[in-house]
Specification:
This is Serine hydrolase. The protein is an alpha+beta fold. It contains 12 helices and 19 strands. It has a 6-stranded antiparallel β-sheet, sandwiched between helices. A 3-stranded antiparallel β-sheet has the order 2-1-19, with no helix packed on it. Strands 6-7 form a two-stranded parallel sheet.
């Protein structure tokens, strides 16, 4: 018996040691993989007769993982551009949840379209000075209507200080055109939930008259959010929103949303050492901003619920459209003068999260950013995601290419007839991000 055991013992002794299970991928590795899988360099370009995009687009994606109380526990930021065609991860300081490793420059459409030297940005183009020797460089896409989040934030800061109240009437005259009088909250609500431009003009002019626009950039810089800037808006019309003058980056926008979400203790520290807490906004201000973002109608970018069931659309973050926008008779959504025409009820019934967010869209730029919270019955996740890009409705997918007609000019864009305004690679990225966050947070709570 013993003799027969010895060979077995010898075999055990000579066997290779058991392999340790592989370490889970870091959040930055997972986000980089999700961006790479999106194939953003395969979209079609209306301005080049529907041919494939000439270069990888500029894409800036940030992700903050939050614990149950809203504290950040991990962060990732990925940049994609012709400088980084396979994407690159941004080094993030866990004390500031920010970065100094990127030289961000202002958007220049002529530079993007090849009318200027791609690498020809000067110090005057820098969003934050002193980063000429930074390891990474990135021309930050115009945020489109995502910048309305900055207007809403500044209004609420003035409300907290007693300079404004949400109930006070504001009579908006746009030059000689009378746009009417409403309480401030009735300008705020459509600006955020439907991205109404007229309401944004009204509030921008209000900020100019109250001296609130002048200090906005300095206030954001003091919070360590120096790439968030609103420059050049007209004190007469509230308009003049121009690429190259209004700036946002994904990581700074994610931290602004972190402040709006709130959480105990120090949320981050600025490079100067200042501790930033949720008290930068009153609880009432944060709850109000959250309620506006939660009431968002335009679920058509990172989430795509308004396109529910369309075979040409991709599922995005599985978020519900608020009931106020859904026609109880047929389930369709009409918002921002657009009738999306799809029955959203099946997707709303299957929704797993609420997405408190703001989108942005023009011909040349597409963006979305917000706070994701799981519904009580769904797998837990709590995170902030921000997407900025130069992928506006000029760029589209082969699935809608038959709707493109360059001979019609503005009326020939595919979104006009399909109501699919963003390349569906964006909601597909949103779905990948939600899936990876669902898996990460499940592992931590099992």
């Amino acid at each position: 018996m013993l003799l027969t055991m010895f060979p077995l013992l010898g075999t055990e002794a000579s066997a290779a040691p058991r392999q340790k299970p592989p370490r889970p991928a870091s959040l930055e590795q997972e986000l980089l993989s999700a961006v790479r899988q999106s194939g953003f360099d395969e979209v079609l370009d209306f301005q080049h007769n529907g041919g494939r995009i000439a270069h990888p687009p500029n894409v800036d994606v940030a992700l903050l993982e939050l614990d149950a109380d809203g504290r950040p526990v991990a962060a990732a930021n990925v940049l994609l551009s012709r400088d980084y065609p396979k994407g690159v991860t941004v080094p993030i300081d866990p004390k500031t949840w920010g970065t100094t490793a990127v030289r961000y420059t202002r958007w220049d459409l002529e530079r993007w379209d090849g009318q200027k030297d791609w690498a020809g940005a000067t110090a005057e183009d820098d969003l934050v000075p002193g980063r000429e020797k930074a390891r990474l460089r990135f021309m930050a896409p115009y945020p489109a209507s995502l910048f309305k989040l900055l207007i809403a934030f500044r209004v609420m800061r003035l409300v907290d200080r007693g300079v404004l109240t949400l109930a006070q009437p504001w009579h908006f005259m746009r030059e000689a055109v009378d746009r009417g009088e409403r309480p401030v909250w009735r300008w705020m609500e459509p600006m955020v939930t439907e991205s109404d431009n007229g309401s944004t003009e009204a509030l921008a002019k209000l900020l100019h008259e109250k001296g609130g626009m002048e200090g906005l950039n300095a206030e954001l810089a003091e919070l360590g959010l120096g790439t968030l800037q609103v420059n050049g808006t007209s004190p007469v019309t509230g308009r003049s929103w121009n690429p190259g003058s209004i700036h946002m980056t994904a990581l700074d926008t994610a931290r602004l949303l972190l402040l709006i979400e709130g959480g105990p203790g120090v949320l981050w520290r600025t490079p100067s050492g200042r501790e930033v807490t949720a008290a930068e906004l009153s609880q009432a201000a944060r709850v109000y901003l959250q309620s506006l973002l939660a009431d968002q109608a335009l679920h058509e970018a990172l989430s795509s619920t308004v396109l529910c069931g369309d075979p040409k659309a991709e599922p995005g973050i599985p978020a519900a459209v608020p009931r106020r926008w859904v026609d109880p008779k047929d389930g369709t959504v009409t918002a921002a003068d657009t009738a999306f025409g799809r029955d959203t009820r099946p997707c709303n019934a299957a929704a797993e999260v609420t997405f408190l967010h703001k989108t942005g869209l023009t011909e040349n730029y597409g963006s979305d950013g917000g706070i994701v919270r799981s519904m009580p019955w769904a797998s837990r996740r709590h995170y902030i995601v921000v997407f900025l890009s130069n992928l506006g409705y000029r760029y589209y997918d082969p699935s809608v290419a038959s709707a493109a007609d360059p001979s019609k000019g503005e009326d020939g864009f595919p979104y006009v007839s399909t109501k699919i305004s963003y390349t569906q690679r964006i909601p597909a990225l949103g779905r990948r991000i939600d899936t990876l966050m669902k898996a990460r947070q499940r592992e931590k709570h099992e």
